[in-house]
Queue: 2 jobs
Job 1
Amino acid sequence: MPTLDILFFRLGLALFLGFLIGLEREREKEMIFAGMRTFALISLLGATTAFAGEQFVGPWLIVIGFFIVSTFALASHIRNMSAGHIGVTTEVAFLLAYLLGALVYWDMLALAAAMTVVVVLVLTFKPNLKVFLKHVEREDLWAGLEFAIVWVIVLPVLPNQTYGPLNILNPREIWLMVVIVAGLNLAAYVLSQMYGMKRGIGMTGVLGGLISSTAVTFEFARRSQRDDQRLFARLFALAITIASAGMFVRVLVLTLLFNSDLGITLLPSMLAGSAITGLGVGLLWLQTRRQSEPDRDDVSAEKTRSPFALRPALQFGLAFAVVMWLSRAAQVYLDDAGVYLSGILGGLGGLDAVTLSMAKLSRTTVSETVAMRSITLGTATNMLFKGGIVALLGAKEIRRVILPLFILTAAASVAVAFLIR
């Protein structure tokens, strides 16, 4: 039997997790049969039943308790149907609350807490999901299906061993990077459809940083040349800068996820880049607040299509493999200078490939300092490349803001990287 303090902790946690679910359901109290107190007590009942069954009666007690709780949920559903409400969301959440209480007693605390967060998020996002469904089209369903194929079908069957010249290419590891980056892009698209791109240019920039800051730069620089959108020049510059600041955060997060030691080494140079772009965001935001620009929501009125498709995913996989092989080959034949060269070249294409390949190689054949500098050179090259896009396609109002800011950002991040020994 658990000690008294452990037992009190588990029962209290079960009560709290049920209360969180009930707190969300309380908003629709007129339509449901259970609120904060009922959900809290039902989770406590699940934990208590699991305790009594384990210590005194037997495992069948938790099953009997589940059937009794299900009877209450079924009675509620029948009553709601007679009143014209056919949904079963609250009833299903009611059953989950009971099971979550049992999980807490069985010491599956992390699983129970994670499931509670997911349940609350699903319940809370109902209005946003309805908005999202209005924008779902056949192409979006195909995008989700393609992602499922890439993740669920293709990934498990790929061999988990290295092949090719220099013995560096692992098909499963390469495809895993494809799945992760494609999933991140698809999640960013779903969020944009749930919350709407019209809710602010800031959201556009943030999502652009998740998807592709280069694509945001190209689109807004091109639009700034239109006669009917020149008034939005500062807003376009703001969106480009926000997306570029997000790029530094994305690179750092990806590195920390796959190689925490390299991520810590990379932290100073990425903070330098994000700090300067963040300062630019603040200054541009203040300028846009002082300037009267009509109909700002129209800046993001165009619908964004899903960023995921099978062909781009395959292209990324190829780019990742090429960058990894070039990085290894450059290291073998050109030493550290070759690794730096691979980072610079990768910055012109996709930073994800550079970041993830360096995160892998720094565990084996490349030092953390060299890998960190290679990634930083990639981000600096990407900033200069976006500056070149603005110089070629952007209006004068954007060029005079973006060019000096991006050049300063690139120089500062590289300087910090090479000052680290």
Note: The chain has 17 helices and no strands.
Job 2
Amino acid sequence: MPRILLAPMEGLADFLLRGVLTGIGGYDWGICEFVRVSGSVLPVKTYERICPELLNASRTAAGTPMRVQLLGSDPHFMAANARRAVTLNPAGIDINFGCPAPTVNRHRGGAALLGEPELLNAIVSAVRAEVPAHIPFTAKMRLGIEDTSRAVDCAQALQAGGIDELIVHGRTKVDGYRPPARWEWIDRVRSQIDIPLIANGEVWTVEDFRNCQQATGCADIMVGRGAIADPLLARKVRGEETGGWAEVVPGVATYWLGVRQRVLPEHAGGRIKQWLALLRRNYAEAEALYGLLRPVKTAEEIDRLLLEAGILHALPPPFVGHFTAH
């Protein structure tokens, strides 16, 4: 059975959602949101805030290993922060060369570095010197900035820097998240390196998963937005029986409870709506729930509507009481 991995998704797959998705099951390991490195060594509390799994042996509550991801362009400070991260016993260290966000790229982070293979090599070489052999060390990249002309150069530079495995998202920075993913280019990169390559990009269904494997030559696949749109996807790929929306509902309830406990009320509604907006690709019930919640402004009103819709009934009684008390 191939490995199925949960992608890092800044502003989307936070600690709460990672916990729900891995609790539903099917993932071998995943990567947390990135830790942005600039001109300092970040304190331990920063790592623990972005990747709270570090407080649980670098695993989600369900036991799925979660790796720490670093993003930055200065080899010295990337290495120094890797040294700090290693003291927290992470399940692995990953370097982000894939984020296409303009705010990140303007500060020379993520996919903006893909025109400089020499710098990619310098960064991973410096980090490799700080990451002991028993901790998995990976990098995640896109195919380039505006085109794919340096994709192989970048991959070879990262391999030469000492990473154990490479994850390739089959789009350029300019492509953003527009389909299709260029799976054929992932295959070209794979054929030019000697370390394992993990394919990523535009996998929404079991059929997509199989097609991606065939087109890229990669057995192992990292799933991003497709995992959020269908929390049962990884288990479906594994051929397991799944219970449809009825099996997703407890996850929705658990997620909302976590959001209400950790997020300011004025921001809470946006979190659940963002997830439902993706869930509705696969579940008519999510479409209906999204339509119900979309115009609602307050978290308290969402509490009431979720209770009335029976969503929160999937929670144990003390949790339901928490909402009833509002």
Note: Residues 75 and 185 are 28 Å apart (CA to CA).
